Structure to design on (959 residues):
């Protein structure tokens, strides 16, 4: 959507005084609302309609007598939710570090270390993905795949779509980190960090909705 | 000039103190949500509305402070809230149509 | 409203408009060239979809014919609908978005020129992807709405539906990318003084359409993802035996599908709103109301989808709510019709070809609108569902509405695009053949429909009272074929042989007519400072805009080095001579688009039991996509 290294001297005239790329990312986020609305609707519509288990919140005994526990692991997912929330904190600190580069209070302090915060955000995002990989594999071991039942299909697709968004975000953050190491991000680059941050936080708020609607509400 | 105000406005971000408090509030709400999940209140008719309100609060403070929509140009507010409202209405309408909600 | 100053360019500009040859088109990022590419490609697909329609009508001309097989007939009607909606009408509108929006708002290009090229290449490659299978008789055959579970692997084995699912997915990417681009362009690239309420009506309607695209495509994307997963990975979204709901697809599809109807018609409304004032020599009547009714149509468009599903039995409450919302939407639409009539009323009307088509839209769309109101009544609709009555209705709004408007737009803007007029004589022939042919084709369908003739049947028995109506429809279609041939001849001949057109070919009032025809690659040598809704009429015929609100140029702070009061530009200097920086031509968007198509195409081999090959091609495509995306984003624009 935008050049990562937009380093022209001249500034283009714009009707609102805002940058094109920031308008585009907000329009994109608006569109993403409808994307996740469709996924979440489907998950909720199919909730409780699966004919065979495993189920998210209830135990299930198969006709063959095999017993399945409720499959969602709330403690583990609570931790991964916390990790993602903290990544948002790291993200705002990364943006603040880039915006305030050279200002008092930011020079030579951890608060002004944009590389640290970008790396932290990416690492926390990767940790979240690690939790998701763990969750998915343990579900498969417990007998739930994307083919097992409606719950499996809609659960893996919804959370998988979210995971894919996190993956794109991690790659994006690593690209920014790479640029920061290569030439250093300056206050002039605030915008490209801001755009990435907006995307990242949006992915975070989607998870806030998913955590409540999928994991906590029966 | 108006645009200069916009431009300055756009860079008026929340402060470190606010960032910290937002993170604390998010953590506390999440912890509370998980805690209440393990209490008998889980079976109360108020459990679901409470959780929906709490997650809406979390959603809102991330959008307002971390995505600094509170401090940003009104255009961005419109670009986000418009689609968000249509998306929420669509979810609600679909849930009614599939009898997941009762009028 | 003025803002940050533009520092004059650094030099190194080059002139792309003088370049020609294949390469200059493949690597172009100029919105006018991309618009022209859209126009030619979409017209080609329009002819192709028309040919499919003609075959359908030949098959149905008489009872019990076997010109084509039942299976091939399924492919024909599926591809006719898919082609006309996604490959003809939407991209024809996109041709005008591309060409006109920057010119109408006084900009030198769109906000993201390379993203614009990307949208076009994705559209072209996606169009080829979904069209080619018909030559091998493996085209999609599940209807343009592809209802699941019919389209799941259980009921539709074979690769037909795979092409459809992935083709639409690819085309959706094109529409979404273009929509983000135009939203940003319209918000941010307007010339000084071009406030929202001074924007030409075409730009306004396009603006609304971009929001519809942005919000309507995600639901169908998700519905298609579910179908793709069901077909390729064994998920159960549409598996009824596993407890799935047979209505899930229908709901998700029509949450997209109804806004899509407005995506198809609003650009044509916009074109007509440019044509009628021009040839009535009067400003558009009720500009504000036109804007608000457009917004109202767009907004309500998201709350009426279930009127496509009255026959499935949603229950009385749901039926009543959606019926009322649907009736409500007739109000802003009717308001538009009356505003157009009031625009013509008392005007100095000249009946040029574009004017004829514009008036044709007003008349024919009204007929389609009225049968639409009939459908909004759930009990009546239950009778009409899946009959030819519905086919009559939506062809009146799509052919009588969108296509008439788009033809009007082509005749109107041809002089701007190619510097020459199209022939009025051939244009008049085209209009009347089209008008008569269209009515002869679709009006009898109201009757055959009410007599109970179902849609999508490949033949029918004699003695049900349908014969004469079907024959009339087929004769009408033959007239439409002749009409379209007249248009094609006119179009091709006029490009080189038409009468030369000046800047302002028709005496219109908006900015695009203040610059040379065809425009130079930088559009405006000096960005005009706009002071009213019809800047060019202010300049040439101030008496015509005396009643409109104006703000003097002195009230405008001109900070842009190139901004000047509205004027006519006649110079033919190159961008380099003027020191205007132009974006570099690039093929990176093309390769990114190619990556996407290869990525999807690879999955096809999974159904040929070549899993390793499928994954190799898909991952190869993904690598190409990511690689060229990085190359694109890290190279400077200009």
């Amino acid at each position: 959507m935008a050049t990562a290294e937009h380093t022209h001297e001249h500034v283009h005239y714009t009707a609102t005084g805002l940058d094109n790329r920031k308008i585009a990312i907000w329009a994109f986020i608006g569109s993403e609302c409808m994307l996740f609305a469709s996924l979440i609707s489907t998950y909720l519509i199919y909730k409780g309609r699966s004919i065979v288990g495993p189920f998210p919140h209830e135990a299930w005994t198969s006709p063959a007598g095999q017993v399945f526990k409720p499959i969602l692991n709330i403690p583990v997912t609570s931790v991964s939710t916390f990790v993602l929330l903290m990544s948002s904190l790291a993200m705002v600190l990364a943006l603040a570090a880039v915006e305030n580069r050279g200002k008092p209070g930011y020079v030579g302090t951890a608060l002004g270390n944009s590389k640290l915060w970008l790396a932290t955000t990416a690492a926390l995002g990767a940790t979240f993905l690690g939790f998701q990989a763990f969750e998915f594999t343990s579900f498969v071991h417990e007998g739930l795949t994307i083919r097992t039942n409606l719950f499996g299909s809609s659960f893996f697709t919804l959370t998988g779509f979210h995971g894919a968004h996190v993956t794109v975000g991690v790659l994006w953050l690593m690209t920014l980190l790479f640029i920061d190491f290569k030439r250093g991000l300056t206050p002039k680059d605030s915008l490209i960090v801001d755009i990435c941050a907006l995307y990242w936080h949006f992915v975070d708020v989607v998870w806030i909705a998913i955590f409540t609607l999928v994991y906590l509400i029966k | 000039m108006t645009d200069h105000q916009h431009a300055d406005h756009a860079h008026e971000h929340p402060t470190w103190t606010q960032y910290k408090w937002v993170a604390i509030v998010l953590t506390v709400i999440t912890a509370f949500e998980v805690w209440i999940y393990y209490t008998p209140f889980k079976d109360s008719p108020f459990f679901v509305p409470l959780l929906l309100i709490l997650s809406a609060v979390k959603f809102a403070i991330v959008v307002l402070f971390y995505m600094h929509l509170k401090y940003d140009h009104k255009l961005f507010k419109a670009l986000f809230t418009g689609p968000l409202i249509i998306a929420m209405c669509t979810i609600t309408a679909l849930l009614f149509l599939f009898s997941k909600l009762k009028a | 409203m003025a803002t940050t100053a533009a520092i004059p360019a650094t030099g190194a500009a080059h002139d792309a408009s003088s370049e020609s040859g294949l390469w200059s088109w493949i690597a172009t990022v100029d919105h006018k060239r991309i618009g022209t590419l859209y126009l030619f490609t979409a017209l080609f697909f329009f002819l192709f979809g028309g040919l499919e329609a003609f075959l359908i009508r030949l098959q149905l001309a008489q009872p019990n014919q076997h010109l084509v097989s039942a299976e091939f007939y399924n492919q024909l009607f599926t591809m006719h609908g898919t082609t006309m909606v996604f490959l003809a009408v939407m991209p024809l509108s996109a041709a005008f978005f591309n060409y006109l929006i920057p010119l109408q708002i006084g900009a030198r290009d769109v906000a993201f020129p390379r993203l614009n090229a990307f949208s076009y290449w994705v559209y072209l490659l996606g169009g080829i992807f979904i069209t080619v299978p018909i030559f091998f008789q493996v085209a999609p055959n599940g209807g343009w709405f592809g209802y699941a579970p019919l389209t799941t692997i259980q009921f539709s084995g074979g690769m037909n539906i795979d092409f459809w699912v992935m083709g639409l997915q690819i085309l959706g990417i094109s529409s979404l990318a273009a929509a983000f681009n135009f939203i940003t362009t319209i918000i941010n690239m307007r010339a000084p003084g071009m406030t929202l309420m001074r924007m030409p009506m075409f730009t306004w309607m396009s603006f609304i359409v971009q929001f519809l695209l942005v919000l309507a495509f995600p639901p169908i994307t998700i519905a298609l993802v579910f179908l793709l997963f069901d077909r390729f990975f064994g998920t159960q979204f549409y598996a009824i035996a596993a407890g799935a709901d047979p209505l899930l697809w229908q709901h998700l599809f029509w949450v997209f599908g109804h806004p899509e109807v407005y995506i198809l018609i609003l650009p044509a409304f916009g074109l007509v709103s440019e044509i009628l004032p021009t040839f009535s020599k009067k400003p558009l009547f009720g500009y504000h109301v036109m804007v608000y009714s457009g917004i109202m149509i767009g907004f309500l468009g998201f709350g009426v989808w279930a009127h496509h599903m009255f026959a499935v039995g949603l229950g009385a409450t749901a039926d009543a709510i959606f019926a009322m919302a649907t009736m409500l939407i007739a109000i802003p639409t009717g308001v538009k019709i009356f505003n157009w009539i009031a625009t013509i009323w008392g005007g100095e009307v000249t009946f040029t070809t574009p004017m004829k088509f514009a008036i044709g839209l007003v008349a024919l769309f009204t007929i389609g609108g009225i049968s639409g109101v009939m459908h909004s009544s759930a009990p009546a609709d239950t009778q009409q569902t899946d009959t030819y009555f519905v086919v009559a209705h939506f062809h009146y709004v799509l052919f009588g509405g969108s296509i008439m408007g788009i033809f009007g737009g082509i005749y109107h803007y041809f002089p701007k695009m190619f510097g020459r007029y199209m022939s009025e004589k051939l244009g008049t022939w085209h209009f009347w053949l089209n008008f008569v042919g269209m009515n002869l084709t679709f009006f009898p369908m109201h009757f055959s429909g009410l007599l109970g003739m179902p849609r999508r049947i490949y033949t029918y028995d004699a003695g049900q009272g349908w014969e004469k109506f079907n024959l009339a429809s087929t004769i009408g279609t033959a007239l439409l074929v002749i009409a379209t041939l007249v248009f094609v001849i006119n179009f091709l001949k006029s490009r080189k042989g038409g009468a030369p057109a000046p800047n302002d070919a028709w005496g219109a009032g908006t900015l695009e007519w203040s610059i040379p025809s065809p425009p130079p690659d930088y559009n405006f040598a000096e960005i005009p400072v706009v002071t009213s809704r019809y800047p060019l009429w202010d300049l040439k015929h101030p008496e015509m805009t005396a009643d409109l609100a104006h703000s003097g140029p002195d009230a405008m702070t001109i900070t842009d080095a190139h901004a000047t009061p509205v004027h006519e530009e006649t110079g033919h200097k190159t961008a380099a001579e003027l020191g205007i920086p132009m974006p570099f031509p690039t093929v990176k968007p093309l390769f990114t688009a190619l990556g996407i198509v290869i990525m999807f195409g690879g999955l096809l081999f999974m159904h040929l039991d070549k899993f390793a090959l499928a994954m190799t091609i898909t991952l190869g495509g993904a690598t190409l996509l990511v690689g060229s995306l990085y190359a694109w984003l890290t190279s400077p624009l200009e």
